[in-house]
Amino acid sequence: MVRQWTRAGLAAAVMAGCAVLPSSGIGHDRPTLDRETTRQLTVAARTLLERRSEALVQAGHRDRRPLAEILGVRISPRVAKVQERAERELEHRNRAPVEGGPAYTEARTRLEPKRAVRTGDRITLEATEHTEVRHETGKLTQSIRRRFDFSTLDGQVVLVDERVLDPEAHPLNDPDPR
User: Fold this and answer.
1) Residue 129 φ/ψ, nearest 5 degrees
2) Mean of the pLDDT values across residues 37-59?
3) For residues 127 and 164, what is the distance between their CA atoms, to the nearest angstrom?
4) Model pTM?
5) pLDDT level of residue 5 (50, 70, 90 thresholds)
6) Helix pair 35-56, 77-92: axis angle to 10 deg
7) What is the secondary structure of the chain as a DSSP string?
8) In this predicted model, which residue has the larger pLDDT, 113 or 64?
């Protein structure tokens, strides 16, 4: 018999010590993730994009420490290496909308999750990145569809890949593909 729990009944069972629930909300029985877990994955993915956007802006002090974990989500060594290379390249790229033009003065990035789905030990987050960079005479805004792939192992979530879904898109905060 499968028991249907009400929110109050579930809370009472947990309080009574009768049920042990996964703390991460990443159950293997549901392909679509709950809102809190989706938020956790989105924050981890957004942090990578924000750091790359910040690298476009000439600033005296930026956190340059390599990312290993964000909000409980580990960053795979491969993704961390790609991120470090991207930040370094973006810091030294022409930081203007056109060659020799006014430098970027501010960058803001937000990530809007569209779908987070689990398939076995893999989780895929599809989201739209909205990045705005300002310069002294105006601003540029870009919306890019991205996909972030996570893997789970012993309850630990690891970001293992990131890609742009629109083949013709050239995000401002991505390194030169060449």
Assistant:
1) -90, 135
2) 92
3) 10
4) 0.78
5) very low
6) 30
7) -PPPPPHHHHHHHHHTT-----TT---TT-SBPPHHHHHHHHHHHHHHHHHHHHHHS--S----PPP-EETTEEE-HHHHHHHHHHHHHHHHS--SSSTTSPPEEEEEEEEEEEEEEEETTEEEEEEEEEEEEEETTEEEEEEEEEEEEEEEETTEEEEEEEEES-TT---TTS----
8) 113
